[in-house]
Design goal:
Blueprint lengths: L1 H10 L6 E2 L6 H14 L5 E2 L3 H18 L1 E3 L15 E5 L6 H7 L2 H11 L3 E11 L6 E4 L14 E6 L9 E4 L15 H9 L12 E4 L5 E5 L5 E3 L8 E10 L5 H4 L1
Parallel strand pairs: 1-2
Antiparallel strand pairs: 2-10, 3-4, 4-5, 5-12, 6-11, 7-10, 7-12, 8-9, 8-11
Helix pairs in contact: 2-5
Bound molecules: 2-oxoglutaric acid.
The site of 2-oxoglutaric acid (AKG) has 10 residues, from β7, β11 and β12.
């Protein structure tokens, strides 16, 4: 993380991580928008204070325990050895929990999405990503919703850390990959698939590019274009690593019947 932090520090005179209140400062908003335009993902931004995130976590504790489900869509290749517990998700919890919809439709998040997408936005979907100790990697992917046939569309995601997401289990991005859709055959590359089989770790991506690991503390957030190639390593820590992602799209974007 040190190299990435240095890169951001050089690019911006604000200390890291920047605080969401400072977004009233248009200059900072511009920096975040520029991060995403250039690299596909942003520097870490603090959304909630420690007290606020502790309170949110205690309000969510039972809900997460009772509603999380083992997911599998992100996994094309199982490792032949090593721990490989599923990743748990909860989709669109904001629809039934007004406290969550208030959080994800927070004006600061909407302001960033509006600036990045250059027009009015709407919240499209949310997902809790819950990695208990031993939960597997999320393989390298672009959020193009292949199964739903949604393809490439303008979007901005805010992934808010509920727990510590350290360099070894946070989101990893390959910068500058958000401007085109990667051919699915790239993910079938023999040496990449062999790496996936050999070990439960997240291998190097199947294309050339700079990998940046955006470590976050509870209450911090990374913004990204879903088309920026991303993934996350297995959770080898003794603690849960959970995050809540809110996905924004242009207000008038029509997904047809499937995308709601
Ligand atoms: O939380 C993770 O590990 C994966 C998140 C992700 O792929 C996403 O939000 O699109």
């Amino acid at each position: 993380m040190a190299a990435e932090a240095d890169h951001f520090r050089r690019a911006c005179r604000f200390p890291l991580p920047v605080r969401i209140e400072n977004l009233k400062n248009m200059e900072l908003l511009e920096h975040i928008a520029e991060d995403i335009a250039v690299n596909g993902f942003s520097r870490p931004v603090r959304i909630f204070s420690e007290r606020e995130i502790d309170e949110l976590n205690s309000n969510l504790e039972e809900f997460l325990k009772n509603n999380k489900r083992a997911d599998s869509w992100y996994s094309a290749v199982d490792p032949e050895q090593g721990e490989n517990k599923p990743v748990d998700t909860i989709y669109n919890a904001h629809v039934c929990r007004p406290d969550l919809s208030e959080i994800v439709e927070n004006q600061h998040l909407v302001d960033i999405a509006t600036r990045v997408l250059q027009g009015n936005v709407r919240l499209w979907r949310t997902t809790f990503w819950i990695k208990e100790p031993g939960a597997r990697r999320v393989e390298w992917h672009q959020d193009t919703y292949k199964d739903e046939g949604l393809g490439s569309f303008p979007n901005v995601n805010s992934w808010i850390a509920l727990d510590y997401a350290n360099e070894d289990n946070c989101l990893w991005f390959v910068g500058k990959t958000h401007s085109e859709i990667i051919d699915l055959n790239v993910f079938k590359d023999e040496s990449y698939v062999n790496d996936l089989k050999k070990s439960p770790d997240l291998p190097m991506p199947p294309l050339t590019g700079k990998v940046t690991k955006v470590a976050l503390k509870p209450g911090e957030c990374v913004f990204f274009d879903g088309r920026c190639l991303h993934g996350s390593p297995p959770n080898k820590t003794m603690n849960r690593r959970a995050g809540l992602v809110a996905r924004f799209v242009p207000e008038g974007h029509d997904f047809g019947r499937k995308g709601f």
